[in-house]
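Write out the 3D structure for:
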Amino acid sequence: MLDRERNSVIAEWLRRVNLVSELANIPLSDADRAGHLPQLFAELITRLRLGKDAPLIISISAMTHGKERFSQGYTAAMLVEESRIFEVSAFSTLHLHRSELDQTKTLLAVIIIADEADRQLTDTVRGFMMASENPKNSRSPLGMPAFSNWQRIS
């Protein structure tokens, strides 16, 4: 169901993010603001399909997102707020479609969603911190240092 409702979850996330002045004050197009979500959402759906015992892997997409957010002038607290809003948007969608869900599996799905969102947030912060520790490469249009030469962690 979340896979089917992916676009509505992203739209709800964007609506909610734009209501938070701290986030909305960063001058980004909707595409730039939400551009990271399709890949992170795909990772979430994969994790749901694999179940609770799926191995946890480092999300290069989330790390890239953290690096980009650093160059866009975000703070670490803003990353946490974005992640919180994603979880609320996903859980709101589950609530709206609760009659379609197998109630015996819903709580496990909620646990997996929360765990995956937190794992992605960890990797987003990891990328953000890597960028903040190596700001010498370039500067963003906002005057914040940008990090372009980072390495994948495998």
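Residues 14 and 28 are 12 Å apart (CA to CA).
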